Amino acid sequence: MAALMVASGCAKEETEQKQSLQGTNLMRSQTSGTAKGTKLDQGPAERAADYLRRREDIRDVVVVNSGDRLLVAYQIPHMQRWNRKKIEKDVEGRLRDMFPGYKVISSSDLKIFWKTQQLKTKMDNKRLDQREVNREIGRIEKLSKEQT
Amino acid sequence: MANEKRKNLTPVQQEYHLFEKERETKRPIVRNCARAFLVGGIICTIGQAISYFYMYFFDFTEQTAGNPTVATMVFLSMILTGLGVYDRIAQFAGAGSAVPVTGFGNAVISAAIEHRTEGFVLGVGSNMFKLAGSVILFGTFAAFVIALIKTIAIQWGGL
């Protein structure tokens, strides 16, 4: 049972490594950051992703927006995790200033990053409408607030 | 032994002390540390993989995956202790297998097995948490003290 758990845990890690755990430059060029193939306007998401990519304390970023909601998921470099809370607070504050009309949901949690990445891929491939995207964002937001 | 303490010993005791020191088996501290580091690291790697397993296959975030991961690690170490495997690992790794949370499961089950002959209530029941009980007590107390310090630092220190 343990071997199975370890194998399946590591199996996923390998695919995620390709886009999040490698050297910063290589990794940045591999993650597109926002859903480009969707019919929904992703202008705010593009701007948020551009801003976050320029920051040295952020390694990888995926952003999705729909209606008045902006979902931002990012990864913090390993050694910068000492300042995780500070970075999260700063990013949240800056994004709120940049997008005053939007409800910003930001997280540096790996699970939220995976979920946002999945949503972005779905938006690219399945052409989800705004209602469906909003529902998915709502689910991710709820998950990000989970404490136990 | 400290020099001041040795001065208080009688000449015979001092002679015995030197005799003992010469013949005492030297502890391979560096080798023990290396083994503890390796085995402790392997246990933590397994824990990390289990944590990723819960995050990927269930709705656990990085923050919430800790609880089921700890439960699984303790459960696995309990099974391994019952099968007699963990004891062998512990003999090789020393602190490397005792310090991680798996050592807690080992402490509970090994005490339960040891005292089984004394009956289920007075044997297993009363001795199971002999060592683990102090871990729980001082762990809870330490958490309380740290929380108190943090609260004071936030309220008065403005952190």
Automatic annotation (TrEMBL), chain B:
InterPro entries: Spore_V_AC, SpoVA. Keywords: Membrane, Transmembrane, Transmembrane helix. The keyword Transmembrane helix applies. It comes from the Bacteria. Signal peptide: none annotated. Pfam families: SpoVAC_SpoVAEB (PF03862). The chain crosses the membrane at residues 36-57, 69-86, 133-153. This is Stage V sporulation protein AC. It comes from Geobacillus thermodenitrificans.
